[in-house]
Amino acid sequence: MVLTTSDRTPSNAYRVDDEGIHLPDRGVADDAVVDVLLEGRRIWSFKADRDRRMNGVVPWPPALREHLNGLATWSLWAHGTERELASGESLLGSGEGTVRVIDSDGRPLAVAKGGNLLVMLADSGGRDREALADALVAVLADLRGPGAAEAFLSFGCLLGAVRDGHVIGHDTDADVTVLSPSSYPADVALQSFRLERTMRDRGWHTARQTSGSFKVWVAKQDGGRMGIDVFGSWFIGDVMYVLPNQRVELARSALVPVSTVTLEGRPMPGPADPEALLAATYGPGWRVPDPSFSFAFKDQGPAIRRLRGWLRGERLDRLAWDEWFSGEGGSDPSPPPSGFAQWVRPQLDPARQLLDVGCGNGRDAVWFAGDGLDVVGLDYSVTGLEAAARMAEHAGVAMRLDYLNLYDPRQTMARAARFAFERAPRDVYTRFLVDCLGSQGRRDLLVMCRMVQRHGGSVFAEFRAAGRDGSRPQLPEHFAREVERAGGVVEHREQGTGLAAGDDDNDLQICRMRIGWRN
């Protein structure tokens, strides 16, 4: 049976359509966790009272929408029970084919806690869970060895270890917490950088996340990788701050001296009182599995603001970009340059350095460098920068690559000051970045450009004039006003379709600008 959005559908029936999951007026408890299965596999879970809108609809997660084209065979289950709430078939999107939520290699995907699509540990095979547990043992040993850092298992893997001794199936990575002996965030950052250098010296592949946290990558059996996040933490009085986003009242004695917990049959360091830490982290219901769990950010607002200011800045959509560049976005070792790069090239002074801000996988930056320009590629995604490094090596060109978070004003200004100190004119190139940034990111981008171009140079920007769904139709006008307020001048502007020839965005409205600065 194909369910439709007919007005004749009663309000006490479940419906599934392009908008999302329509819940009935009765029959779903406010605190219920509901699993959404497509073709018999859990794809996503939601909590009725948190995620339902006033019209009774729980909207699809944005990351899932691109897969929702065709016939969807769905079912809804009360999580943790054998009670099916509803099932049926729905035509979604184009209605052609069958809905399958998989990546380009055919691996099953599901919505992770960050909202992006990832391969869950439950779908990746027992060997990956064992490999992750082995890696945790080794990582904790290396962290606790040099410098005797107080490191222990935390968050999801600690939850699994205490519940039943196994990795949680709907998890995708692992977490370790390092407790600093200092109460000062600056010391937390110094310890984190020191530990990362130690881990690299010992052969681990790492990626910096914030000033107080980094990731250790672990290989999977299918050629992919899993991450172990190493989060810094510290006490101010009886209050514990722990990255990425928590402030909890907890006695230090609940953490150290460490105890031993067992995960997948492997003993490893855990906090002194695991249950106390889990209750502080997840609340009193921590013993009940909840794949829809989300930290109560509204209650952690002041803590998050402090942590952003001290150590992390904002990280909007970071996970989604990392996932994109880990897959399709980083798979082509030698793509052709974009039409925008070819349009910009004749306007560049070969004597000037070129900053490619938002270089992504290096598609255009590598082409510019191969044409003899001095190029520096900057990006928000660590995996994007890694893809750019591979592309540069494949092309046999030399270029500098560096991390830049435009949502972290201190980091942005520090990067800009370093370039400005060199007292040389330079051009800035940025493609499909302006339309991906929020207002703070665009503001910091323009401030940075003005600083690095204090001795001359132009900004060349190309961006979507509207999103694929027609949102932000006034972005070019809005950005032009932001440029003016920042002290810039739009020297050239053109807009239309066909400007992204050869790309997926060829049929969208594209805007190009060349920007200069008033003295």
Describe what this molecule looks like in 3D.
With 519 residues, the protein is of the alpha+beta class. The chain has three domains: 2-118, Sandwich (Immunoglobulin-like); 121-312, Beta Polymerase, domain 2, CATH 3.30.460; 321-517, Rossmann fold (3-Layer(aba) Sandwich), CATH 3.40.50. 29% of the residues lie in helices and 28% in strands. It contains 14 helices and 26 strands. The strands form six sheets. Strands 11, 12, 13, 14, 15, 16 and 17 form a seven-stranded mixed beta sheet that branches. Strand 4 and strand 5 form a beta hairpin. Helix 10 runs parallel beside helix 11 (382-395) and helix 12 (409-420) runs parallel beside helix 13 (439-452). It is globular, with a radius of gyration of 25 Å. The N and C termini lie far apart (68 Å). The model is unreliable at 1-11 (pLDDT under 50).
Helix and strand arrangement:
Blueprint: E1 2-3, E2 15-16, E3 20-22, E4 33-38, E5 41-47, H1 48-51, E6 57-59, H2 62-65, E7 70-78, E8 84-92, E9 110-111, E10 117-118, H3 126-144, E11 150-154, H4 155-163, E12 174-179, H5 185-201, E13 205-210, E14 213-219, E15 225-236, E16 239-242, E17 246-249, E18 259-263, E19 266-270, H6 274-282, H7 301-312, H8 318-326, H9 339-344, E20 353-357, H10 363-370, E21 374-379, H11 382-395, E22 400-403, H12 409-420, E23 426-431, H13 439-452, E24 459-464, H14 475-485, E25 488-496, E26 510-517
Parallel strand pairs: 1-8, 12-15, 20-21, 20-23, 21-22, 23-24
Antiparallel strand pairs: 2-3, 3-6, 4-5, 4-7, 7-8, 9-10, 11-12, 13-14, 14-15, 15-16, 16-17, 18-19, 24-26, 25-26
